[in-house]
Amino acid sequence: MTRILLVEDSKHLSKAFTIRLEHAGYAVVTATHVDEALAKALAERPDAAIVDVGLPGGNGFELTTRLRERLGLPVVLATANRDPSLQSRAERSGAFALLSKPFDATVLLETLAQAISIAPAFS
């Protein structure tokens, strides 16, 4: 089963994302802040990550860079911020994609599947 690290500090959104991801057949490991996410990623070795940009203990861009460097994980970033400069920051961090909240669950699942499918080439 494909494992996803979901890093979201909103309990409501984390629960909603987890339910949708599990319904789609993924095993989900959750974290709410940067340090917890890194520890869980190293322990659980997920296949991909979905990371909120605004996180306690750092930000999603920094976390994405660390996940990419240490584990080669494909990362899908999510943000409620509509600042156009975030796209270039996402690219510099090594993210596969940046999605703007709110987004349709189908978009998330399709983007995640694409990221996982090219993970070896993306690493």
Helix-strand layout with pairing:
Layout: E1 3-7, H1 11-23, E2 27-31, H2 34-44, E3 48-52, E4 54-55, E5 58-59, H3 60-71, E6 75-79, H4 85-93, E7 97-100, H5 105-117, H6 119-122
Parallel strand pairs: 1-2, 1-3, 3-6, 6-7
Antiparallel strand pairs: 4-5
Helix pairs in contact: 2-3, 3-4
Structural write-up:
- There is one protein chain.
- The chain is α/β, with parallel strands linked by helices and 123 residues long.
- It is 50% helix and 23% strand.
- It is built from six helices and seven strands.
- A five-stranded parallel beta sheet has the order 2-1-3-6-7, sandwiched between helices. It has a two-stranded antiparallel sheet with strand order 4-5.
- β1, α1 and β2 (27-31) form a beta-alpha-beta unit.
- The longest helix has 13 residues, at 11-23.
- It is globular, with a radius of gyration of 13 Å.
- The model has no long low-confidence stretch (mean pLDDT 93).
Give short descriptive properties of this protein.
5-stranded parallel β-sheet; 123 residues; alpha/beta; 50% helix; two-stranded antiparallel ribbon
Order of helices and strands: EHEHEEEHEHEHH
Give the helix/strand class. Answer: alpha/beta
Total of DSSP H or I helical runs spanning 4+ residues: 6
Distance between the termini: 20 Å
Q: What's the helical proportion of residues?
A: 40-55%
Return Rg in Å: 13 Å
Low-pLDDT parts are none
Strand order of the largest sheet: 2-1-3-6-7
**Proportion of residues in β-strands:** 15-25%
Nearest-integer average pLDDT: 93
